[in-house]
C-alpha cells in the first residue's frame, strides 16, 4: 500500500456476514494469508472487539502497527495507550 493511503479490507459471506461469536465465521488459511500479505508493513486499525477476538498467540498482528479503538483506557493486552483528540 502506498505511503499515506488508507484502505478498508473486509471479508464477507454472500449475506454480508463478517463475524460470529466474536470471531470470524470461517477458517480459511488462504484468506488469512491474503490479509497478512495485504496489510504487511502497514498500520491496521480495528475495534476493541475485533482485537479481543484475535487469539492471544496471534496478537499483536506481526509486522504491522496494531491500532485498537476503544472508549476505554483499559483494553486488555494494549501496551501504549493514547487518547485520541476529537475531530
Ligand atoms: N470478516 C472481516 O473482514 C472482519 C474484519 C474485522 C472484524 N471482523 C469480525 O467482526 C466482529 C467484531 O466487530 P464489531 O463491530 O462487533 O466490533 P468492533 O468494531 O471490533 O469493536 C467495537 C468496539 O470498538 C470501539 N469503538 C468503535 N467505534 C469507536 C469510536 N468511534 N471511538 C472509540 N471506540 C470505538 C468500542 O470499544 P469499547 O466498547 O471498548 O469502547 C466498540 O465497542 C468480530 O466477530 C470479528 O471477528 C470481521
In short:
The chain has 87 residues and is of the alpha+beta class. It has 2 helices and 2 strands. It has a single domain, classed as Dihydrofolate Reductase, subunit A (3-Layer(aba) Sandwich).
Report what the structure shows.
This protein has about 90 residues and is α+β, with helices and mostly antiparallel strands. It has one domain (about 1-85): 3-Layer(aba) Sandwich (Dihydrofolate Reductase, subunit A). The protein is built from 2 helices and 2 strands, in the order H-E-H-E. It has a two-stranded parallel sheet. Strand 1 (about 45), helix 2 (about 50-55) and strand 2 form a beta-alpha-beta unit. The mean pLDDT is about 90. The structure holds NADP nicotinamide-adenine-dinucleotide phosphate.
Per-chain topology:
Elements: H1 29-39, E1 43-47, H2 48-53, E2 65-69
Parallel strand pairs: 1-2
Question: What labels would you give this structure?
Answer:
Dihydrofolate Reductase, subunit A, single chain, 87 residues, alpha+beta, binds NADP nicotinamide-adenine-dinucleotide phosphate, 2 helices
Q: How many domains make up the coordinates?
A: 1
Tell me about the largest β-sheet.
Answer: 2 strands, parallel
Strand and helix order? HEHE
**Class inferred from helices and paired strands:** alpha+beta
Radius of gyration, in Å, reads 14 Å
Cα-to-Cα separation, first versus last residue: 25 Å
Amino acid at each position: 500500500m502506498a505511503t499515506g493511503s488508507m484502505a478498508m479490507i473486509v471479508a464477507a459471506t454472500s449475506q454480508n456476514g463478517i463475524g460470529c461469536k466474536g470471531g470470524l465465521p470461517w477458517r480459511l488459511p488462504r484468506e488469512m494469508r491474503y490479509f497478512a500479505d495485504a496489510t504487511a508493513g502497514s498500520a491496521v486499525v480495528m475495534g476493541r472487539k475485533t482485537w479481543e477476538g484475535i487469539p492471544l498467540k496471534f496478537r499483536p498482528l506481526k509486522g504491522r502497527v496494531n491500532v485498537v479503538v476503544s472508549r476505554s483506557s483499559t483494553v486488555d493486552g494494549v501496551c501504549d495507550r493514547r487518547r485520541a483528540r476529537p475531530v
